[in-house]
């Protein structure tokens, strides 16, 4: 089944932007983590995400067919042209916020990549086969921290529950569907995001049960990222991310 | 944050099958599960291993450095313990 190239390019940019922006957020911890071990673990995860973003941008540039390189797409678009979901651009907050955001994103991406490894698009199935192993570790690492903080001291439990409340409004956007995601699902390129909810819930509820955490009910969902409408934090993030390429255009290593 | 309440673990990595685990350093972690993850993140980023052991540092009994002379010096004069006094026939080749 033929799908519009624009839809495929949009789909790839959304996915790539999720990974770049979350990878950038995680990299902000580098040198600031509560202990050396975590100071390596978080940039490790960030590098996994940025590696995934790179191949997705390369492919997006190819599909788009306007001669954009991965760097053009990563560094030289305007805020409204970034299509990441809002959760990944949220400020890091404390360590509990960062671990929870990472766990939720990974718990969504794991079934996504699992299904996408049987994609009708060979490039995507190739990316998925590598990513699924990386993201399995992200769930394990962040999940163990969420359990220990949730089932830890009074303060760590309170901070963990506060993180759940703060990030809950951004959860539903992960599962949002529109004509782009519908076209991908119909063509067998990528799974329908809404169909991943049971797998996500199973992962998160297993971890939350051990962590004595409650999922908040009826949070008012915040959406708009897939259409380029972002929160205030996004502009500051992009200023940081794009500074080098804006100041020294075309600078390379 | 990371003060004395987080225990220390010794990390052993096996570089490939058939070789022994070798001590490569230590990490701080609250328990054995987190210690394995920390060891993975700190010591296997460049493909160094296929297996990791972690052992609580407190479980290791070490020899007393003060006793170095009486422990190890007596071995120095007993060169006949080294297998260097045999003539190996040429036909044996490389051993």
CA(first)-CA(last) distance of chain B: 54 Å
Specify the CATH homologous superfamily of chain A: Ferritin, core subunit, four-helix bundle
* Largest sheet geometry of chain A: none
Strand elements of chain A, count:
0
What's the SSE pattern of chain B? EEHEH
Indicate the mean pLDDT of chain A.
95
SSE-based structural type of chain B? alpha+beta
User: What would CATH call the class of chain A?
Assistant: Mainly Alpha
Quaternary state of this entry equals heterodimer
Q: Shape of chain A, please?
A: globular
Q: Note the beta-strand portion of chain B.
A: 15-25%
How many helical elements of chain A? Answer: 9
Describe the structure.
The complex is a heterodimer of chains A (253) and B (95). Chain A is mostly helical. Chain A has helices at residues 5-27, 36-64, 70-75, 95-116, 122-150, 154-167, 179-186, 197-211, 232-247. Chain A has one domain: Ferritin (Up-down Bundle), CATH 1.20.1260.10. Chain A is globular and about 55 Å long. With 95 residues, chain B is α+β, with helices and mostly antiparallel strands. Chain B has one domain: Ubiquitin-like (UB roll) (Roll), CATH 3.10.20.520. Helix content of chain B is 22%, strand content 21%. Chain B is built from 2 helices and 3 strands. A 3-stranded antiparallel sheet of chain B has the order 2-1-3. In chain B, a hairpin with a 7-residue loop joins strand 1 and strand 2 (22-28). The model of chain B has no long low-confidence stretch (mean pLDDT 90). The A-B interface holds A 34-38, 40-41, 44, 140-141, 144-145, 148 and B 1-2, 6, 27-30, 33-34, 37-38, 41-42, 45.
Would you spell out the secondary-structure blueprint of this structure?
The complex is a heterodimer of chains A (253) and B (95).
Chain A: H1 5-27, H2 36-64, H3 70-75, H4 95-116, H5 122-150, H6 154-167, H7 179-186, H8 197-211, H9 232-247
Helix pairs in contact in A: 1-2, 1-7, 2-5, 4-5, 4-6, 4-8, 5-8
Chain B: E1 8-14, E2 22-28, H1 32-43, E3 51-56, H2 68-76
Antiparallel strand pairs in B: 1-2, 1-3
